[in-house]
Design goal:
Blueprint lengths: L1 E5 L6 E5 L4 E5 L2 H7 L4 E7 L4 E3 L3 E6 L5 E6 L6 E5 L7 E5 L13 E3 L15 E2 L7
Parallel strand pairs: 3-10, 10-11
Antiparallel strand pairs: 1-2, 2-5, 3-4, 4-9, 6-7, 7-8, 8-9
The protein binds zinc ion (ZN) (2 copies).
One zinc ion binds next to loops.
C-alpha cells in the first residue's frame, strides 16, 4: 500500500510505499513544543522509495545521544511533515502520522518519554511503554 502525507497547505507531500517499519508516539518536551500538542506520532519507512515534493526548510537539533535530528517543514504553512535521524537511521525517513490524516493508520508500537505524558492521554493496549527514549 502506498500512502501520501501532506502538509496543512498541500505544498509538501511525501509518498511512501509499504508499511512503516516502526511507529512511535512521543511525549517528550521537544515534540510537545514542536507540534503544539500533547504528543507526536511518527512512522519510519525506508527512504529509498519515498517520493518528496515541495520545498522545505529545516530545523536541526541534537538528540539525547548527541546525534542530529533534522526536521523538514513547509515554509508556507509550517507543518513538520518529515524528518531524518542520519547517524542512527541513515536509510530511513520519519513521517508525521498526522500528515497522512488516515484514521486507519496502524497504532504505535512504542510510547516514548512517558514521564512527560499528559496524564489523561491513553496509550493503546499492546503499545510498549518507555519512561524515556529507546536505543535504536
Ligand atoms: Zn504547507
Ligand atoms: Zn519526542
Amino acid at each position: 500500500m502506498t500512502r501520501t502525507a501532506r502538509c496543512h497547505c498541500g505544498a509538501v507531500t511525501v509518498e511512501v510505499p509499504g508499511e512503516p517499519q516502526f511507529t512511535f508516539m512521543c511525549h517528550c518536551e521537544f515534540c510537545q513544543r514542536r507540534t503544539g500538542t500533547s504528543y507526536h506520532l511518527d512512522a519510519w519507512f525506508s527512504s529509498e522509495g519515498a517520493i518528496i515534493t515541495g520545498e522545505t526548510r529545516t530545523y536541526t537539533r541534537s538528540g539525547d545521544r548527541g546525534d542530529s535530528l533534522v526536521f523538514h517543514f513547509c515554509p508556507n504553512c509550517g507543518s513538520n511533515v518529515y524528518f531524518y535521524l542520519p547517524a542512527v537511521l541513515p536509510d530511513m525517513i520519519g513521517v508525521a502520522v498526522g500528515c497522512f490524516a488516515d484514521p486507519g493508520f496502524p497504532a504505535p508500537q512504542a510510547s516514548l518519554y512517558e514521564y512527560r505524558r499528559h496524564r489523561w492521554v491513553e496509550v493503546p493496549a499492546g503499545t510498549v511503554r518507555h519512561e524515556r527514549g529507546v536505543t535504536l
